[in-house]
Amino acid sequence: xxxxxxxNITALTLGFAFLYLPMILLxxxxxxxxxxxxxWAGFSTKWYGELLRxxxxxxxxxxxxxxxxxxxxxxxxLGTMAAYVLVNSGRxxxxxxxxxxxxxxxxMPEVITGLSLLLLFIGIGLDxxxxxxxxxxTTFSMCYVSVVVSSRLVSFDRSLEEAALDLGCNRFDAFRLxxxxxxxxxxxSGWLLAFTLSLDDLVIASFVSGPSSxxxxxxxxxxxxxxxSPEINALSTLMIGIVTIGVITASLIxxxxxxxxxxxxxxxxxxx
Amino acid sequence: xxxxxxxxLFFWFSGLLISALIAFFAVATFNGSxxxxxxxxxxxxxxxxxxxxxxxLHFKLRVLGLALIAVPYTWLLxxxxxxxxxxxxxxxxxIALAIPPYTPTVKDGFSALIQGLDFxxxxxxxxxxxxxxxxxxxxKIAVISTVLTxxxxxxxxxxxxxxxxxxxxxxxxLVILPFWTSFLIRVYAWIGILSNEGLLNQFLLWTxxxxxxxxxxxxxxxxxxxxxxxxxxxxxxxxxxxxxxxxDSLIEAAEDLGCSRLSAFxxxxxxxxxxxxxxxxxLVFIPALGEFVIPSLLGGxxxxxxxxxxxxxxxxxxxxxVASAVAVILLLILIIPIxxxxxxxxxxxxxxx
Lengths: 272, 353
What we know:
The complex is a heterodimer of chains A (272) and B (353). With 272 residues, chain A is mostly helical. In chain A, 79% of the residues lie in helices and 0% in strands. Chain A is built from eleven helices and no strands. Chain B has 16 helices and two strands. In chain B, strands 1-2 form a two-stranded antiparallel ribbon. In chain B, helix 5 crosses helix 16 (320-352), helix 7 packs antiparallel against helix 10 (220-245) and helix 13 (274-289) packs antiparallel against helix 16 (320-352). The mean pLDDT of chain B is 85. At the A-B interface, helix 1, helix 3, helix 4, helix 5 and helix 6 of A face helix 1, helix 3, helix 6, helix 7 and helix 8 of B.
């Protein structure tokens, strides 16, 4: 058993302190009863109450969730299709352009994506609102989904699909009954990734949203520009809490299923 | 015979779908009155659904195969490539007091359109010191913060790769977790820490290390801290992946052959994690160059970054042609690191297979 050297322990401690201390402080100060955020004046949950009574925040949260659910679902369908095409179709007209358009949005500065989509929407006369945010979010998150899904498609055993085709499945049934269940974990994590990207996006949404479709990040942004506010601290704490619970649950589930898969493999080896 | 019928069916089916789409967007654009105005598009869609049910199987498979390529392709062309061409076109136009605020537009006719386009905005960018200073300072900030992120991230990745096997999954999760939490909130968290009455200054004053508060918020230092903090996971993960693959016996061999620990690290570990370092640096440098949120929240009026300039040019000055020209140049600058990054990734993929 290897032991960590003092140097490595220091690196890990300082590194994780740097990563987590700001968020921990944010959580602690969300329970501060003082309006002055940097002065501790006793424990209180009043800012959570204020937050839940704030109509504008609740509306923005609702818009954000609506956009995130719709756009991540579209993005997952389109991204999975794109990944399937990239991995399975050999040459077709404009393949290089296609794969370029899949990878380019991943490294594109958000200001450029936002600007270009806004100019498009104005050019075709589409009113800015929930629809335009959904279109924008679907476009950039489908690329992330297709990268996640295609890495899974590349690694899985082609002969399974071929066996299904030999046994009389048509291409569609082979995909539905064999390929899709195998790539399902990647599709699900692609959806989750698209969902968080959409929840998180400020820059693109501020370009393509209209006055009636303010999302939560835009709302937070306009509040934060005026400085630290205890309500935003409370909101941040709620968001950090939800994400932490989600990620821990997901990693426990995947750990359990990988242990089960290992046991199955061992059992299969014993019987063989 | 079968070919011809397939073709007819194809036109029938795609015609239904396209007209449903046009009907939908026409109503959405011209703000039809109420839900009733969506009836034609719903009707067309229902007709398409019914004809789908009675179509022969071989035709369905053909359509599915074609749609598989056509749908994502069309989507990306319409919402990724076309918008870029529009940005490029507007960057060649002139600002005008109109809606939309530039000239010429497509309505002016083709020849007026061609004659009205010029590189004036690009010339303007080279003459106004604000812009090339902003590009240079974006480059400087991106380079410095990439180096700082490497200095913070490498020891962490190294320690993670040296950690006992059963810790590693947890450590990985701890690195990835911040990535799932809101970017905006993570940047915001630093405002309360770095401000003049902030927690860092309170702490330093309390310890007696400083006698009056340091000004960190609204300076470039705060921007560096913000970038290092938010992009640290992007640096750690590829380096960790490279170090994790490394064979420990190589270090032992180097030490047996008379290397000191330090020179074994320098001569063996660093070269073997080179690809991870390069990938991590690009993953931090590329987004940092066009960063908007961090300089706006943590930086001051003296922090010039091109993402911020573009945003202000567009929303505050409403100068769309100049904003578009700024975007085109930013893209041209970014192409170099992006191509280098792709080459590095390809080389790595080839080395693995």
